[in-house]
Specification:
The chain is α+β, with helices and mostly antiparallel strands. It contains five helices and eleven strands.
Length: about 230
């Protein structure tokens, strides 16, 4: 199993505001939360790894569910009480939902909280996005981060450079029988280039390949091979 971990940072700011108190002894406060990624160098980065954040607030709020669809996924609210909430982060490229807890408190005007999010067996498209914020398994073996020009080229291929739908190819490969998968592994080994990312996990009995790092002719070979055996 391939696991890629990323650190998410929540930045909370709060202050007393000039509004009548709803509960005696508890002044009204305005508060906000922003979400960032922390890269391998400890630097703050936009959380473009996620396509939306869903804040699940205390049920006493008129609208306790807030959905924000662009970084830094800022929510801004008012209230008098502290409470625990859940934030559901939905990753791009069908990377699934990741729920993190958050303690909204009024001890400091600004505070930060960090959480580790784990992506298990991310698909090739998600791996590409994950590389923007840090290394992924296999990078230490020589696979380099791509520049914008390389990313644009990959996107063009995804749109159909060889009339191959990379998402469907990935799904089709997962449907193959074991004997067919052995042929796929051999095809990859025989035709890969220096830019191809592969990882052979002997202990788990798994073979991983980033389809977006394969040369065009090999992508077409894999598509024809897979399409002849399963529905794609």
């Amino acid at each position: 199993m391939v696991e890629v971990k990323r650190v998410v940072k929540l930045v909370t700011e709060q202050k007393i505001i000039d509004k009548p108190a709803v509960e005696q002894g508890f002044p009204m406060r305005g508060w906000s939360i922003k979400i960032y990624l922390i890269d391998e160098n400890g630097q703050e980065q936009p959380a473009t790894l996620f396509e939306k954040a869903v804040y699940k607030l205390h049920p006493s709020f008129k609208n306790p569910i807030h959905t924000v669809k662009s970084p830094p996924f800022k929510i801004q609210e008012e209230g008098w009480g502290e409470f625990d909430m859940e934030i559901v982060l939905t990753a791009v490229e069908r990377g699934g939902d990741h729920t993190i807890p958050h303690d909204l408190n009024f001890q400091d005007e600004r505070y930060e909280a960090k959480h580790v999010v784990v992506f298990k067996n991310p698909k090739p498209a998600l791996l590409q996005v994950l590389r923007e914020s840090g290394p992924v398994p296999g990078d230490e073996n020589g696979l380099k981060k791509r520049g914008k020009a390389d990313d644009d080229a990959l996107k063009k291929r995804k749109r159909g450079g060889q009339n191959v739908d990379m998402e469907k190819l990935a799904e089709g490969l997962q449907k193959l029988q074991e004997e067919d998968l052995l042929q796929v592994v051999q095809m990859v080994h025989d035709n890969k280039t220096a830019e191809t990312y592969t990882k052979n996990d002997v202990e788990q009995g798994e073979f991983h390949v980033d389809l977006y790092t394969l040369p065009d002719h090999l992508v077409k070979m894999l598509w024809d091979f897979t399409a002849a055996r399963v529905e794609v």
